[in-house]
Design a protein that fits this description.
501 residues, alpha/beta, 3-stranded mixed beta sheet, 16 helices, globular, binds iron/sulfur cluster
Length: 501
């Protein structure tokens, strides 16, 4: 007799007094959880397939459905949780590496939740952002240490290329292939409307999106998928991806099942072949090698575009960043271990890397100590959930942030963490036409714009409350932060004092 080691994690609880057998849930669930049984004239559910994406719940007009966490328990203890036991059973069954999507869910400290923001009172009064100017514009790129002017006051320096952002927020790298065409279009249109940038990720740039070039960062990753001269020239900046917060130290893998049609053309690889990017760039084994790639890309684009180097937040991130700053890169991206992904080995995602708050603070301090902070801008990503997180990370030293998961949520993602299955019921992380057409770019792009405008307003309010009227004045302003419930070592790394001090 077969033994069933697993009990469903979620249950679709149906209120039969409300259910009208409209079968919407059956049509909407790509995981085939719901089924209409004609003989019984009744809907039933196979709970074992439910990933709790809430699609059926959101579309059930009579509110007959809710997804509940299964009440079934294992004999858990502090050492062996139900999750760990389930994962072990799965590996014993399949012999395979566990795969997951989205960011690290483990209960490590979230330092954003342990940092509080200051407010002005009496002296240095607060500023009302509705009545007084408040500057949220950010200019990213290497800055000269000394500004030289001619007799007429004109700047004589040859300024390196810069990126102008209306707010200190960009959409992080998410490739066409891991995301649907409609999701990419939504990001590109929102970036254009808001005067910020989105990022192609390692999937190349679909020919339809070349028109958003001035709002696009084109990525060069270890697989070099979709990288060619026109691609490099199309973007406003070029990002070399050395690492990613969700999977430091390993490459990427988009399964062949997702390499179809335009995705195969855009990546310049045959349909159905797996897109595997190697863990290292095979031409980079030192900072000198990285420097060569930075300069190759600059030369290829006439020194007109800033070059960004993206790394994962790992133990020696400050030393690595110091090397990158000296490699000629204009912008460094630090990606924390809570950063999302379309697919990553679960063990890597959950156990490798460090939080962005600690990584960013130590990078900023190291570059300032070495007197090279102005040589590069720093963008922080991996776990930014709100405007308050943005204010805190900028006060810790970032120039701007990347958001990925937050942007997906704005478009409708319900964090079911099943992107790697390709069956995203919200049409975001899928290439199945019946699913991708569920995401209407006219609506999704507007929701992204709404989110960014709301955050812009909140950032202005928080800055005004601190008596600060520009992002530039907030940057690295640790006096505006206090820790709560942190030990002396943590406060030291963050470079902030404890609340009450
Ligand atoms: S997977 Fe999503 S759509 Fe399917 S039953 Fe579960 S919550 Fe509903
Ligand atoms: S993008 Fe789709 S599959 Fe991925 S977590 Fe969000 S809703 Fe789930």
């Amino acid at each position: 007799m077969a033994v069933n080691y697993f009990y469903p994690e979620y249950e679709a609880a149906r209120n039969y007094d409300r259910c009208i057998n409209c079968r919407v849930c059956e049509k909407q669930c790509a995981n085939s959880v719901h089924e209409y049984i004609e003989e019984l004239d009744k809907m039933t559910s196979d709970d074992s397939k439910c990933v709790n994406c809430h699609r059926c719940v959101s579309l059930c007009l009579t509110r007959a459905l809710k997804i509940v966490k299964s009440g079934n328990t294992y004999r858990e203890n502090a050492n062996w949780s139900a999750g760990i036991m389930n994962e072990l059973y799965r590996q014993a069954e399949t012999g395979g590496v566990l795969l997951s999507s989205m960011g690290n869910p483990e209960p490590y400290p979230v330092y954003f939740n342990k940092i509080l923001i200051n407010a002005s009172q009496v002296t240095n009064p607060s500023i009302d952002p509705l009545r007084e100017p408040m500057e949220t514009k950010v200019i990213l790129g290497a800055k000269p240490q000394i500004i030289e002017r001619d007799k007429a006051g004109k700047i004589k320096n040859n300024l390196p290329p810069q990126l102008n952002l209306s707010i200190p927020i960009m959409f992080s790298a998410m490739s066409y292939g891991s995301l649907s065409y409609n999701a990419h279009e939504s990001l590109a249109r929102a970036a254009e409307e808001m005067g910020i940038l989105y990022n192609t990720g390692e999937g190349g740039l679909h020919e339809d999106f070349y028109r958003y070039g001035k709002n696009t960062i084109v990525q060069v990753a270890s697989g070099r998928f979709g990288v060619h001269r026109a691609y490099l020239e199309a973007g406003a900046a070029i990002e070399i991806k050395m690492g990613q917060g969700a999977k430091p130290g390993i490459g990427g893998h988009l399964p062949g099942s997702k390499i179809v049609g335009d995705i195969s053309k855009t990546r310049m690889i045959p349909e159905g072949s797996d897109a595997i990017s190697p863990a290292p760039h095979h031409d980079i084994y030192s900072i000198e090698d990285l420097r060569q790639l930075v300069f190759s890309l600059k030369t290829a684009t006439g020194f007109k575009k800033p070059v960004i180097v993206k790394i994962a937040a790992v133990h020696n991130v400050a030393a690595i960043s110091s090397g990158i700053a000296r490699s000629g890169a204009d912008i460094i991206v630090i990606d924390g271990f809570r950063g999302g992904t379309g697919a990553a080995p679960t063990r890597i995602r959950d156990h490798v890397g460090i939080p962005i708050e600690l990584a960013l603070a130590s990078v900023d301090k190291r570059l300032r100590d070495e007197g090279i902070r102005d040589r590069v801008s720093i963008v922080a990503g991996g776990g930014i959930r709100s405007s308050a997180d943005i204010v805190k990370i900028i006060a810790l030293g970032a120039d701007a942030v990347y958001i990925g998961t937050s942007a997906l949520l704005a478009m409708g993602c319900h964090l079911c963490r099943s992107c790697h299955t390709g069956k995203c019921n919200w049409g975001i992380a899928s290439q199945i036409p019946e699913l991708t057409r569920r995401l209407n770019p006219d609506i999704a792009y507007k929701r992204l714009v709404n989110l960014l405008k709301a955050w812009e307003h909140e950032i202005k309010e928080m800055m005004g409350g601190m008596g600060i009227n520009s992002i530039e004045a907030l940057k690295g302003n640790r006096l505006m932060l206090r820790g709560i419930g942190l030990n002396a070592r943590e406060l030291d790394v963050l470079g902030i004092r404890h609340a009450g001090e």
